Amino acid sequence: MRKHFTFLLILNFILLTGSTIAQKDVVNKIIETGKTDNQTMQHLDVLSNRFGGRLIGSDAYENSAEWAASKFKEWGMQVQMDEAGTIPVGFNRGPWFGKLLAENGMDLHFATPSYTSGTKGLQTGHVLPEPKTQDEFNRMKGRLKGAWVLITGKSDGWPVDYSDKANHRRDSLVAANIDIRKKNSEIEAENRKAGKEGVKKELLPLADEPALFYKQMKDAGILGIIQSAPVPIRVLYDRKNIDSMTFENLPTLPDIKLDEHQFAIVEQMAKERRNFFLEFDIRNHFKPGPIKYYNVIGVIPGTKYPDELVMMGGHLDAYDVGTGGVDDGSGATPTMEAARMIMKAGGKPKRTILVCLWAGEEFGLLGSTSWVKKNKDKLSKISNLFNRDGGPTVANSLSVPDAWKDDLEKICEPLNGINPDFPFTIKKLELRPKPKAAWGTDSGPFAVEGVPTMTFGTEDTKGYNFNYGEIWHTERDLYNKSIPEYQEHTSIVTAIVVLGIANLDHLLAKDVYYAPEKTEK
User: Fold this and answer.
1) 64, 47 in Cβ contact below 8 A?
2) Where does 75-196 have alpha helices with state H?
3) What CATH number is given for 92-287 in this structure?
4) At 48, is the secondary structure helix, strand, or coil?
5) Mean pLDDT computed over every residue of the chain
6) What phi and psi, each to the nearest 5 degrees, are found at residue 449?
7) pTM for this model (two decimals)
8) Alpha carbon of residue 245 to chain centroid
9) Residue 264: predicted pLDDT
10) In what order do the strands lie in the sheet with 456-459?
11) Which helix (H) or strand (E) holds 259?
């Protein structure tokens, strides 16, 4: 009996030792591949420069989803095209051009929000400041036809709301201003009676918002509206009207966000009533819907605990004023490359690894929210979700609960031997309560359900002066704003850590990741 027991102990030791050696071999192969054949930037080149901005509902998104699925299959992975929803109509952005036609003529720097109208070819018109009272509108309505109208306010990236609700609100403001003008006339009369020595009353401010006479100006035949925009120009999408769009009621009035410096020049010329023109050619194209959109999920099946999951991902969609090179090409492509390196190294994880390229993050976490709703039964079996959506800085730390520290230190030990420029540290996680509502990236819906969402801390360790705010949702979200050495190193780190967690003999404990909820006494 003792001999039999001893034999089993020896056999178990041999198996464990063999498994450990095999895992180390896989990690070494991942590091070698990451150093000599890292394809992170090739993936980003395809997403950014072959497909470009990848809004859901666009050909670019559909093409990028199909391409990503084909790469997962090429690398030997299973693929799930997970339908996450539909969008009523599709949108594809073409080129856009504009000029100031005057003695001080210039090319115009501008953009338009997604899911808004383009021009009907090249359209040229005079320029007017928008009317702010009914009297002003009546005085200039004959000149509005064929005009580009300058509206007030600073663009925040969103288009002007032209919905019935918005137009009713504007009508109420216009009506209120009639009453305010009457009261101001009375105040002016009182001030005149008071004379120079009397106490003067201040006039009441008029109610205002950009494009106050939107519907009336549209009906009068204006060519479009133009608003001042900070540089770099940020444009988003028509979130107020997109759900009610059909191919029969598409927007028809261009909503132009013009470089604030050029806007100031044009506005001054308009105030001086100078004779000049603007011309625009804006190729915003729509296609009939509904258009389905999909999460692209690559699957590396688990060999021992196939129902338990380790997830990594980023969102595949991107705003189309740029090409999504940073937001979130810098998250999607290291994720893809981590999966490729695991497969190339012969990784056989004990748990299933899901490689998730989420759809519709920019339109409100649509893809990740859909997955969580459809997979409630899987949430308790997720060891961790890694989500990368913060720019192309290098992954160099993890903040973990005390109960995870030993496991993560062992898993992350090889990371400090890869590149001395990027030392890796394990930090203590300051526990926070489970959130009540999803935060603004795809890990949010998971966190609400209590799924651990540990992700990598990152830094611009070499001082490349990276500024995410400059790029976020702006025209500068381009391939060349990514940082190759950071991206490539992050791919290696991601592959090793995700595989390491997938190979633990236990799930990471969930009850230690979020702070206990306080109960009211």
Assistant:
1) yes
2) 134-144, 164-194
3) 3.50.30.30
4) helix
5) 95
6) -90, 5
7) 0.93
8) 22
9) 98
10) 425-428, 394-400, 456-459
11) strand 255-259
Question: Distance (Å, rounded) from C-alpha 368 to C-alpha 400?
Answer: 23
CA gap 305, 297 in Å, rounded: 19
Bridge partner residues of 297 (DSSP) = 80, 356
Task: Tell me whether the omega of the peptide bond preceding residue 210 falls within 30 degrees of 0, making it cis.
Answer: no
How many CB atoms are closer than 10 A to CB 465?
A: 7
Query: Look-up: residue for tokens 């992975």?
Result: 77
- Per DSSP, 37 falls in state S
Which tokens hold the place of 14? 């041999």
Tokens representing 404? 């995870």
Q: Tokens for 294, please give them.
A: 């999909």
DSSP 412: H
φ/ψ of residue 517, rounded to 5: -70, 140
Q: Which two tokens stand for residue 459?
A: 């830094």
Please report the pLDDT score of residue 7 as a whole number: 54
Q: For residue 164, what pLDDT is reported?
A: 93
- What is the three-class DSSP state of 155? coil
Q: Which amino acid is at 158?
A: W
Give the H or E element holding residue 269.
Answer: helix 260-271
Upper half-sphere CA count for residue 402 (Cβ side, 13 Å): 1
CA 399 to each of CA 25, 272, 411, 488, 515: distance values in angstroms, whole numbers, following the listed order: 27, 60, 14, 21, 14
CB 220 within 8 A of CB 144: yes
Answer for the pair 499, 348: CB distance below 8 angstroms, yes or no. no
User: Rounded CA gap, 211 and 218, in Å?
Assistant: 10
- Between helix 164-194 and helix 134-144 the angle, nearest 10°, is 120
- Which residues of the chain are under the pLDDT cut of 70? 1-19, 519-521
Return the SS3 of 129.
strand
Which three-class secondary structure string do you get for 213-256? Answer: CHHHHHHHCCCEEEEEECCCCECCECCCCHHHCCCCCCCCCCEE
Domain boundaries, the chain: 26-88+290-502, 92-287
- With CA atoms as reference, report the closest residue to 220 among 253, 246, 249, 251: 253
Tokens in use for 464? 């490349």
pLDDT one-digit tens code per residue, 339-356: 999 999 999 999 999 999
Amino acid in the structure at residue 241: N
Cα–Cα distance measured from residue 410 to residue 419, given in angstroms and rounded to the nearest whole number: 18
Contacts of 380 (CB under 8 A, 6+ apart): 510
For residue 2, what is the enclosing H or E element?
A: helix 2-36
The bridge status of strand 305-315 relative to strand 351-358 is parallel
Instruction: Reduce the secondary structure of 473-496 to three states and give it as a string.
Output: CECCCCHHHCCHHHHHHHHHHHHH
124/221 Cα distance (integer angstroms): 13
Name the class of domain 26-88+290-502.
alpha beta
Residue 212 burial by CB count (10 A; 0-12/13-18/19+): exposed, middle or buried? buried
- Tell me how crowded residue 442 is: count the other CB atoms within 10 A of its CB: 32
Phi and psi for 169 in degrees, rounded to 5?
-65, -45
Q: Residue 4's pLDDT is what?
A: 61
Phi-psi region of 259 (alpha: psi -120 to 50; beta: other; left: phi over 0): beta
